[in-house]
């Protein structure tokens, strides 16, 4: 539930491509994140894509997780987007919570996110749990959602899908 409304969530379909590109362009101010999504798909790194939609079928939000190269069986939350008209209503939080439930059911051992610790810590991500991870990609903004026993505080080297090489720090935050 977000702001007293039920949020509908489903897997992305072919018919969603144009509305998704519009959502990502309007949320992130240009086509870079939609291109990033396509690169993740080309690389066959996508673990999950879900869209949030209203009663009319309009796409209002999107979450995409990719499989990490290393550690295997770990995911990275690659994109979280909420339509600017629906910011500050709890939809992003609901997308993350449901996305992490899906990650658990799908067998992911942990999920990484590069983002705002104040925001993502409210949904179970932890800077402390990620504190022993080795990464060259914005370690100060890396958080971990541990799922399997032993993943919190794990000492691992993070290797992201190749598509991440084309992102800037502005894209990630």
UniProtKB/TrEMBL annotation:
Q: Which residues form a coiled coil?
A: none
Q: N-acetyltransferase domain: from which residue to which, for each copy?
A: 7-149
Name the domain of life.
Bacteria
InterPro entries, sorted? Acyl_CoA_acyltransferase (IPR016181), GNAT_dom (IPR000182)
The GO terms this record gives for MF are:
acyltransferase activity, transferring groups other than amino-acyl groups
Q: Which Pfam families match?
A: Acetyltransf_1 (PF00583)
Entry-linked PROSITE patterns: GNAT (PS51186)
Q: What is this protein called?
A: N-acetyltransferase domain-containing protein
Q: Which organism is it from?
A: Celeribacter ethanolicus
The lineage, from the top, is:
Bacteria, Pseudomonadati, Pseudomonadota, Alphaproteobacteria, Rhodobacterales
């Amino acid at each position: 539930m977000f702001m007293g409304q039920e949020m509908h969530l489903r897997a992305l379909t072919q018919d969603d491509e144009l509305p998704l590109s519009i959502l990502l362009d309007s949320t992130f101010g240009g086509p870079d994140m939609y291109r990033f999504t396509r690169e993740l798909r080309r690389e066959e790194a996508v673990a999950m894509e879900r869209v949030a939609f209203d009663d009319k079928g309009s796409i209002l939000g999107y979450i995409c997780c990719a499989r990490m190269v290393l550690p295997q069986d770990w995911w990275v939350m690659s994109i979280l987007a909420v339509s600017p008209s629906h910011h500050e209503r709890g939809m992003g939080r609901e997308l993350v919570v449901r996305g992490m439930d899906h990650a658990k059911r799908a067998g992911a051992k942990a999920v990484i996110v590069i983002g705002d610790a104040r925001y993502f810590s409210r949904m179970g991500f932890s800077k402390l749990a990620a504190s022993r991870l080795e990464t060259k990609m914005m370690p100060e903004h890396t958080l971990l959602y541990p799922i399997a026993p032993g993943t919190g505080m794990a000492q691992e080297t993070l290797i992201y899908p190749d598509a991440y090489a084309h992102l800037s720090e502005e894209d990630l935050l």
